[in-house]
Specification:
By secondary structure, this protein is mainly beta. The chain has three helices and 15 strands.
Length: 241
């Protein structure tokens, strides 16, 4: 139930704001954003300690950012399966996604740089690339949720329907988005909630483990990160040098 929210306007003072809300099993080990990858020394992102990849990678020098969400469709053969966490690393580092995708489970991969924003969606059989027009866009596990479609299923529809008008009316800048990314006061069990938590039994907890906000603005690139989603005091600015 991860969500990415993109505000894109190439002619504006702040041309790009990208938020990545990561939902995961809370016991899955990870570390906060840093330069974790010796083979990609220019990239900054949080690292998934299980598979070694990331959910969001930033190359501040390019500048270029990439964010991945799980998709829906045909899973990869077990003998070929590769971690989707490698995809943001490749896209952020090179600006391209080449090679065979057969080893990846379905995904949605958002890539953004000053030339534009795209969403690459792989359902296990076919890759579809959407070039985003200026405006506000939500990407959820069912894909690009344009106005009126609201995500394609009940819980995604409720989330997008609640938050789309709030983000539409908010200024395209860091303070306004940080406020909304703290969850708009909704309970974590609410079907509309952006920050979620579910007890799956037997000690297994699934929920929102982090929120990232990347801004391309007049003063350059900024990366804000919360490791305690819903707590306004948890936000910190990630060093980019």
């Amino acid at each position: 139930m991860c969500t990415a929210i993109v505000g894109y306007d190439p002619g504006a003072r702040v041309p790009l704001v990208l938020a990545g809300v990561r939902d995961e099993m809370t016991a899955r080990a990870w570390r906060p954003p840093a330069r974790h990858w010796p083979d990609h020394p220019g990239l900054i992102g949080g690292i998934d300690e299980l598979a070694g990849g990331t959910w969001l990678a930033l190359d501040p020098a390019a500048p270029r950012v990439a964010c991945v969400l799980n998709g829906r469709g045909r899973e990869a053969p077990a003998s070929l399966r590769r971690s989707r966490g490698s995809l943001p690393l490749t896209l952020a580092a090179t600006g391209a996604l080449d090679g065979d995708l057969e080893g990846f489970d379905p995904f949605h991969l958002i890539g953004a740089d000053p030339s534009g924003v795209s969403v690459r969606s792989w359902d296990g059989e076919r890759l579809v690339v959407h070039k985003l027009e200026p405006g506000l866009h939500f990407v959820v596990n069912s894909g690009l949720a344009e106005a009126g479609t609201e995500g394609g299923d009940d819980f995604m529809s409720a989330r997008v329907a609640h938050f789309r008008p709030l983000f539409e009316s908010a200024a395209r800048d860091r303070p306004a988005w940080l406020h909304l990314l703290d969850g708009d006061g909704l309970d974590v069990s609410d079907d509309r909630a952006l920050i979620v938590r579910r007890d799956l039994g037997e000690g297994r907890i699934w929920g929102t483990t982090s929120v990232s906000l990347v801004t391309f603005g007049p003063d350059g690139v900024r990366y804000d990160f919360s490791a305690a989603p819903g707590d306004p005091a948890s936000w910190r600015t990630v060093p980019l040098t």
